[in-house]
């Protein structure tokens, strides 16, 4: 089984369902990537900040060597971390990430957050994280325009086929589009029934930019981070609306949540260690929810965001 694709404004096709690499442990990462490729996944969503790109590359290399897939059949996504926003730091870190992955180019490279932090030498600390060694936040003076122009140069130099953004607001996107020579191909955001961001999605899709949802299962990804809001929020898998829709369609709660997104042309990047769930999570496009199902899930919106620097004790209120 494989995922259908969506056409990006850069002209490339991106799978609608991919495999997310956040919190994939280094000791199992290569095997998980290999297993996901074997199960039919072609999009892998990673980042410098995840600290596992060497292992991701090992899994990819093994799958290619074993004839499971060709490089051109994969869609590899990574992200520029906050400490590399200065214009002269973008290309060197992109090249380091490609070297770690063992690849010649990204299919898509994103600005991870609209936050420019002071440069940290990768030889001293990698991934650099949010704060300096003393625990303080140190900002860079790099503007989004400066960073975006450096991102555009990655396309010019064929280091990335497409470029995009993540965790940006409408206001920031409007500003970026005023000066962008190459428009962002995608916007990646936290998106689940408890945080639907309807107006953001409406605006971004109207501009021809594809939305990718992360944390599609809501609080589930954040419980292990000991986040109080995640512990105190009902799990979506156990919610009566999701459970009843699951029973109605003979699908798992995870499939219902993923189909709720893909049916509205929103790409998803779930992950799983379980072979059965790997296949189930890919099977979220060949069937449809009824409008009444979608309306019921739409009614669960709480405006509840989990992936916020404030929730990690870091005072960078970008979503305020």
UniProtKB/TrEMBL annotation:
Binding annotation for substrate: 112
Keyword NAD listed: yes
Catalytic activity entry: xylitol + NADP(+) = D-xylose + NADPH + H(+); xylitol + NAD(+) = D-xylose + NADH + H(+)
Domain of life, per lineage: Eukaryota
Family according to the record: Belongs to the aldo/keto reductase family.
Record's keyword terms, sorted: Carbohydrate metabolism, NAD, Oxidoreductase, Xylose metabolism
Active site: 50 (proton donor)
Pfam families found in the cross-reference section: Aldo_ket_red (PF00248)
Protein's UniProt keywords contain Cell membrane: no
Enzyme Commission identifier(s): 1.1.1.307
Annotated site location: Lowers pKa of active site Tyr: 79
Listed name of the protein: D-xylose reductase [NAD(P)H]
Pathway(s) where this gene product acts: Carbohydrate metabolism; D-xylose degradation
Role according to the record: Catalyzes the initial reaction in the xylose utilization pathway by reducing D-xylose into xylitol. Xylose is a major component of hemicelluloses such as xylan. Most fungi utilize D-xylose via three enzymatic reactions, xylose reductase (XR), xylitol dehydrogenase (XDH), and xylulokinase, to form xylulose 5-phosphate, which enters pentose phosphate pathway.
Domain NADP-dependent oxidoreductase residue range list: 18-300
Alphabetized GO MF terms: D-xylose reductase (NADPH) activity
InterPro entries, per database record: AKR (IPR020471), AKR2D (IPR044487), Aldo/ket_reductase_CS (IPR018170), NAD(P)_OxRdtase_dom_sf (IPR036812), NADP_OxRdtase_dom (IPR023210)
GO biological process: D-xylose catabolic process
